[in-house]
Amino acid sequence: MRILVTGATGQVGRRFVPRLVQWAAGDTVRVLVRDEARGVPFARLGAEVSVGELREPADVRKAVAGVDAVVNVAAAFRGVPDEEAWAVNRDAALDLGRAAREAGAERFVQVSTTLVYGAGHGRPAVEDDEPLPGSSMWGAYPASKREAETGLLALHREGGLDVRVGRLAYVYGEGDPHLAQSMRWASGWAAHQRLHLVHHADVALGLLRLLRSAEASGRAYNIADDAPVTAVELHWLTGTELPPAMASRPLADPWEGIASTTRIRDELSFRPLHPSVWTARDAGAL
Length: 286
Description:
286 residues; alpha/beta; Rossmann fold; 11 strands
């Protein structure tokens, strides 16, 4: 199997690709990067390097030529203009899916986010829930990701492209500054508001399950750990002083931002290597 990975130089991709190369015995990993210099570390690992832009159709056609599967990790996150988020997260993803289908690729793993659920559902969000806009975290990033999912799953139903969607919780670990960046929001939360996390090692494990499993065809899966952390714990983990008013802040729905992992556990036998951020801390994996 020849597997194309986009977004290889991002926080998730740069940690996922080395693991995929290691685990893909007998397979070939190809990465799409903007320039040759960015591809050097991956070439040293044994990956093929395709140089080009995700938003350039000719570059995409070259990258998907001869591949059997695609893992679309590329994303435009918070802080970018809305038009860029829509262009990368939705438009480029759909163009990539169409190009992959035309090239004869059999599987397409779309990396998405649990933020697509929007406001809380009064319980852990499950994969068949419709989005509820209104969360303070809602915006172009999750909305564009949700529309990409919808379009790609339509390609699946039309035939010819086996699409699987992995919705990631808040990713952290292995030097990723994401955990410290969570304080942008957690400092204004109620003390008992929680953030659902997933370690980079478990992102890779979950995506590999989606890539390999026959049962994952046409389905979405939440990829997260077993123990969401409170705003108080985030302050402790990052060494940040607790705001005096935190304990008195109200919380409308204690389940907002929490996703069920029952489906991926039951169907794909996923078990996180780091079931909580505390076990990752104890293992020196933050």
